[in-house]
Specification:
five-stranded mixed beta sheet; 12 helices; rod-shaped
């Protein structure tokens, strides 16, 4: 099983990656610079070698006698540097005032029959190149030479001018060393700048960590980080969304506990008193108390179920999974389930539902219908009629439940949709959660729920009309 490495540092990773990238860039740049420098130096020296040869050709390209060749030999010896003449180091230091990059030239003049006529002190006795016009590289035992040969038309001789190649390599290396020194100095400056910039760039991340570290358990307000970088903004946004979800979750838990305490504290106290009272009575009189206990337990069971349903509705909406279903069949099914409850009080359920299909969660719609019908049955008088009407158009499905419970004051309509809101309607054992549950389920399905009082001019009956509209698609 692999484990993540602890203490992985973004700063170290970025710094090491940057250093490796810079070093690789320096290496590639150094190699390319050396190759380009060596090529350009060779081109420059070749051009100067050709130019020197042409200048020398201009001086000696005329009919010459042996005396002329002798004077040329003396001139070449006098022009030679002490190093080329092979003098001792002390003498060379006293006489040599040449530049370090002075070209080490060798001059030879050959007759047409391949006889060496003149040579400079640095030139060997053998031919440095084939006697033909052009550039040639000669590999000697001690030195390699770049040789340029031309034909002297006036005196019918070959002029050979050669240059040692080591000066070219030395110059190329010196140029490369200078470039690398500058690059290394620039690398040091760049490294200092990168380290400083990385520290500055990671300051918002450290600031975010510090803000989170100082937060308390109950401090769930959104994180406000001044001048948040673009790359860090998604992290801050997601953290704030997480804090918001945690806040909502804690609020739901607190609301659930408050609802449970509000609704269950008094009934449980009543049940306890009834049990104590039953224990103090003779067995013949305990039956009355037990019937009351049964009614209380049934009511509290309904309250617990409704509270659990509210807790589920308040949970994350990712659990909401609508499917295509027949709403009219669902209405008839729930109405049939509540017929026995209505018959106990001789209440008639009249259902007029046209075919409607929509996307919804079946269990939630059944809970919606049960709560609305149960609420209508509880608050309707005996022998009343409850109408259930389902219709639709191209956009909405419209469900109406019309009871004869006397309606509610207009100023209490909003309170009736809140938890434990019962208003001034007759209390027949309700917990005040039915309409709140119906409102929550309707909103979950992107619908609307409205309450309106109605008056029947013929019968004079008053009641409440509950209208639910749900989108078909």
């Amino acid at each position: 099983m692999t484990h993540l490495r602890a203490h992985q540092s973004i700063y170290r990773q970025l710094l090491h990656g940057t250093v490796l990238a810079l070093l690789l860039g320096l290496l590639v740049s150094g190699v390319l610079s050396y190759l380009a420098t060596r090529h350009e130096v060779a081109e420059l020296f070749d051009a100067q070698l050709i130019e020197n040869t042409r200048v020398l050709k201009g001086f000696i390209n005329h009919p010459a006698t042996d005396a002329d060749w002798f004077r040329l030999q003396l001139s070449l010896q006098e022009a030679a540097s002490p190093r080329q003449m092979g003098l001792q180091s002390s003498t060379a230091q006293r006489l040599d005032r040449s530049h370090a990059y002075e070209k080490k030239l060798a001059v030879q003049v050959w007759s047409a029959d391949a006889r060496l006529v003149v040579r400079s002190p640095s030139a060997p006795n053998h031919a440095l190149a084939p006697l033909k016009t052009g550039l040639t590289v000669f590999e000697g035992q001690q030195h390699d030479w770049q040789v340029y040969t031309v034909w002297l038309e006036q005196n019918q001789h070959w002029l050979v001018v050669a240059e040692q190649l080591d000066i070219r390599a030395e110059l190329s290396l010196n140029i490369l060393a200078s470039v690398l020194f500058g690059m290394l100095f620039g690398f040091a400056v760049a490294l200092w700048g990168v380290r400083r910039q990385l520290k500055v760039g990671l300051l918002p991340l450290r600031a975010l960590g510090s803000l989170i570290q100082r937060r308390g358990v109950d401090d769930l307000i959104p994180i406000a980080l001044p001048q948040t970088p673009t790359e860090l903004q998604p992290v801050v946004d997601e953290l704030n969304l997480l804090l918001d979800r945690l806040q909502n979750s804690l609020s739901r838990e607190k609301r659930f506990l408050a609802d449970a305490a509000h609704e269950l504290r008094t009934p449980l106290a009543v049940i306890l008193l009834q049990v104590q009272q039953a224990l103090s009575l003779p067995p013949a009189q305990q039956q009355v108390i037990l019937n009351k206990l049964l009614s209380s337990v049934q009511r509290n069971q309904q309250v617990v179920e409704q509270l659990l349903l509210l807790a589920r509705l308040d949970s994350d909406q990712a659990q909401f999974q609508p499917v295509l279903l027949s709403f009219d069949k669902l209405v008839r099914e729930v109405a049939a389930q509540l017929v026995p409850l209505a018959l106990l009080r001789e209440i008639e359920l009249v259902c007029d539902a046209e075919p409607v299909t929509l996307y919804a969660e079946s269990a939630l719609l059944m809970a919606l219908l049960r709560n609305l019908l149960d609420n209508a049955i509880r608050h309707s008088p005996d022998q009343a009629t409850i109408q259930i009407v389902l219709s639709c158009d191209e956009v909405w499905a419209r469900l109406e439940i019309i009871d004869q419970g006397g309606g509610i004051p207009e100023q209490q309509v909003g309170a009736m949709l809140q938890r434990f809101g019962q208003g001034e309607r007759t209390d027949r054992g309700g917990a005040g959660l039915g309409l709140a549950i119906a409102q929550t389920i309707t909103r979950r399905h992107a619908g609307t729920l409205t309450l309106n009082n109605h008056n029947d001019p013929v019968s004079g009956q008053r009641g409440l009309r509950v209208t639910v509209q749900l989108p078909i698609q």
